[in-house]
Amino acid sequence: MNKLAPRLLAEFLGTLGLLAVVVGSGIMAERLAGGNVAVALLANALATGAALIALIAAFGGVSGAHFNPVVSAMQAWRGAITGKTAVAYGVAQVIGALAGVVLAHAMFELPLVQCSAHIRTGIGQWLSEIVATVGLLLVIHGTVRHRPDAVPYAVAGYVTAGYWFTASTCLANPAVTIARACTDTFSGIRPQDAPGFILAQIVGLVLALALMCLLQNSEENPVENPKEKHK
Amino acid sequence: MNKLAPRLLAEFLGTLGLLAVVVGSGIMAERLAGGNVAVALLANALATGAALIALIAAFGGVSGAHFNPVVSAMQAWRGAITGKTAVAYGVAQVIGALAGVVLAHAMFELPLVQCSAHIRTGIGQWLSEIVATVGLLLVIHGTVRHRPDAVPYAVAGYVTAGYWFTASTCLANPAVTIARACTDTFSGIRPQDAPGFILAQIVGLVLALALMCLLQNSEENPVENPKEKHK
Amino acid sequence: MNKLAPRLLAEFLGTLGLLAVVVGSGIMAERLAGGNVAVALLANALATGAALIALIAAFGGVSGAHFNPVVSAMQAWRGAITGKTAVAYGVAQVIGALAGVVLAHAMFELPLVQCSAHIRTGIGQWLSEIVATVGLLLVIHGTVRHRPDAVPYAVAGYVTAGYWFTASTCLANPAVTIARACTDTFSGIRPQDAPGFILAQIVGLVLALALMCLLQNSEENPVENPKEKHK
Amino acid sequence: MNKLAPRLLAEFLGTLGLLAVVVGSGIMAERLAGGNVAVALLANALATGAALIALIAAFGGVSGAHFNPVVSAMQAWRGAITGKTAVAYGVAQVIGALAGVVLAHAMFELPLVQCSAHIRTGIGQWLSEIVATVGLLLVIHGTVRHRPDAVPYAVAGYVTAGYWFTASTCLANPAVTIARACTDTFSGIRPQDAPGFILAQIVGLVLALALMCLLQNSEENPVENPKEKHK
């Protein structure tokens, strides 16, 4: 278990950093945008994507840079980590996420512990979270297998787009959902709405695993260098 | 044909994701931008480009990540895939594109099936689509040959720029054109204007293939490591 | 000279594409931005940077993707191309740049040939062009030597930043300067102001070559893997 | 000491370029943004991040592209450079940073030497600088070890995000802090507030080194290719 410690520290620090950026940039963006929500969301999305490149590049070599319990669950399912490790990762991620929110509040001199009043519920929101999670997991799975050097950019690109193409702004992460319930700022979600999001994310995980099985059949039939290519 | 299934699934999922992002981010951007169309188009363009990095990185290893019938036609012409495969890819792309539009509507709780009233016609629009398609195909062809690791970023960069430098916002894709006729939101195109766009894209394909032949003569004369470089 | 043809075609097409993007995205941005010049310049800068990634990735393997007479001059000085080739490249670049401006006008249904009335003159502008050119050439020279895979991103990043950090919006390119004198839109420059810009760019070229000589001494003393690193 | 000269020149030029971009793009952004501070900060952040990709790619192979005394201190602690070299780097960085500010003022035809009146003090600001510095150093350290090709993008991404997620806009650099005290424009900081920032950055350095020791234990236990991965 001792050898696991640096990996858990990396998951803690990375998820802390992710939430500090999501919440902190949301606070800054709302303060400066003068009521134009599109400009605020643009800043929030670009800051999150830019930070993800840095965080995945920095911590990927230590822990794999999951920062997300459904990603750790997928990696356990693939056999990349054990089930026990996935549970430990999940605990480190949730604690890190909460610490990141508190840190963002401290930097902006706001009350450290808050409770969001931002309503995010309904069919469109839940469907968005299912779609967001399926997409995130397929992007990670496909990129890790076929273009490992592109993982930081692919994940950052996906999450930046997710802020805009889903109605829920793409949380796609139970640790992030729990932590964002604890901030009454731009990126918050009401505590009573969090369980619906987390349930949708779990549904998304199951759907993504099913799709991966269907896509994986292609392994016997790699297309990158097909015979037909060399005309 | 069985081995083709995962590749068709990848084309279906990737084109679905592309359209969900194009249409979904257009809806979100228009809702939030408070009437500033430049801010809305900035969000739409950045979300599309960011998502393309993720989608090409994720699915390129399975199907080649064409997501576009004219790209599949070019790859068939090059001998990278057979003509039959190109036709199957095209069908998967159109179905995926339509599914992506429906999914975007569902996430934003809009009527699932719509018909665009957005006029996009005239000489400037058709010329723009010819230019957009020639450019896209030359970028893909050149990057695949000379900098394969850069393909996701080159295509994403081209499409992001295309939203701004063409008068038509760079559809450059018959599957995308058909699907965008089925949404009466920011990114729609009137059904009666779609054939003009698709015809222009086919003209662009032919011009691009001609230019590729002219450029290909350089293969006997590679410049990357010319003798004269080693002064 | 026959073998040179595809390379000249690549320089022609790449510079054409660059100018179509610079001028076209400027027109679109000004039309949509509702008078907020910062938003227009943001769109113009992002479109140009995004397109440069695509154009350099696509044409670098054929011609080296100079798209700029001062870059070709630097490459001739380095011995990467002959002086004759540099002159031919320069001609192809100027013709391509002019064709790109005409194409942008055609896509937006504007008069094809125009004359800019946009005043860009004075000490600050000329100093900006000197700085812009020195920086561009140092970035290309250093990146080609030490991180060749990063060339498209480094050049795109530099030019995107250049729109903002110089008072002249960083033309840094005589072919671009001549072509932008021929558009009376967002990105134009008065014909009578073009010579001052081109002179400043040539001064920048000379300064950059001098700095390269000073930096090149480091070759006997590479720092990337210094002995002292292995503590 | 002679062999050190090109490396010091690279640190001087790179830090000069960084400050010219930070200050110059801040001036341009404030002039054009029409009072919308969020749009101005977006331009400032994107220009800085884009330029960092170019500067690190261009000068990394010569000097390591530190551009920051706390980065040089960390590299000396790691044994990548000697303590003497770190001091010389620091001097070159401070002189380069000051020269960059003067150059930005000259390009925009402002008084060359200024004194900022921009108040940046208080607990939230100092905490922000500690967080910003810890994050920057962890990102550099982790990326250099595990994904060296990603260094320019990871650092650029981190700094772009830092403009938004910290209350202090992430200076995280004593040379930058000193230089920004010398401009009374968008990115300035009052001279009397600079010591607090620099002290916070030194605290961040110490905390970062402690965290690196804890993370480094993972070296005997690499996760990238764990045995458990091969299910």
Descriptive report:
The structure is a homotetramer of 231-residue chains. Chain A is mostly helical. Chain A has a single domain (2-216), classed as Glycerol uptake facilitator protein (Up-down Bundle), CATH 1.20.1080.10. Chain A is built from eight helices and no strands. The first copy, chain A, has helices at 5-32, 37-63, 69-78, 83-107, 123-146, 151-165, 174-180, 194-216. The longest helix of chain A has 28 residues, at 5-32. The first copy, chain A, is globular and about 50 Å long. In chain A, 66% of the residues are buried. Mean pLDDT of chain A is 93; it is low at 220-231.
What would you say about this model in short?
By secondary structure, chain A is mainly alpha-helical. Chain A has helices at 5-32, 37-63, 69-78, 83-107, 123-146, 151-165, 174-180, 194-216.
